[in-house]
Amino acid sequence: VPLEAEMLQPFPMEQFFSASAAQYQLPVLGEVPPGEPPDPKKCSPREYLEFYIFPVLLPGLAELLHEAEKEKCFEGKRTKFIPSDFLTEWLYNNNPTRKDESFTELFSIPFVKDWLKDHPRPPIPLSLLLSEEEASILIQSFWRGYRVRCDSEIQELRKWQKKLREERHITEVVKKFWTKQEAK
């Protein structure tokens, strides 16, 4: 049988799950399944996930989805919201061992600081930081400026200023001025 034919067959998911999905509910943060918690070093992977990982991770993922909805991530292709950053900050601040400590922002978390020293991030593009209104104002002001600079009287003024700058060596005068200011 060719590989493509095997890959297109329906996948029998029932063999991987012993119970139907309707039986599962998201746990509340810190809430573990009933019963004695197993030894984390000797228990099965399923028990480890159910007792130690899911009670913290699943509420974090639910919060992540709520925050993504607030940030309007489902409305467009691009967004400034970085899910892994949100989840990292949320998990760090909701860690049961940090119950009495205050909220810590992502870039103040010690291991994040260490990571970013060696792996600096590129800046977020301006198109993601501006709201639609701010972007439209910026574009309109640029367009108005362009239209004004195309005016023949403005072109004549700009040529005169350029000629004046070259005749009086303005760039050198400015450099001398700043070296004097820095020397003070």
Q: Helix amount, in percent?
A: 55-70%
Cα Rg: 30 Å
Helices and strands: which structural class? mainly alpha
Task: Tell me the number of structural domains.
Answer: 2
Question: What is this structure, in a nutshell?
Answer:
By secondary structure, the chain is an all-alpha fold. It has helices spanning 3-7, 45-70, 83-93, 110-118, 126-129, 132-149, 152-168, 170-183. It has two domains: 45-122, no CATH class; 132-183, no CATH class.
Map the helices and strands:
Layout lengths: L2 H5 L37 H26 L12 H11 L16 H9 L7 H4 L2 H18 L2 H17 L1 H14 L1
Helix pairs in contact: 2-3
Question: Would you give an account of this structure?
Answer:
InterPro entries: IQ_motif_EF-hand-BS, IQCK. This is IQCK protein. With about 180 residues, the chain is mainly alpha-helical. The protein has two domains: about 45-120, no CATH class; about 130-184, no CATH class. It is built from eight helices and no strands. It has helices at about 5, 45-70, 85-95, 110-120, 125-130, 130-150, 150-170, 170-184. α2 packs across α3 (about 85-95). The chain is elongated.
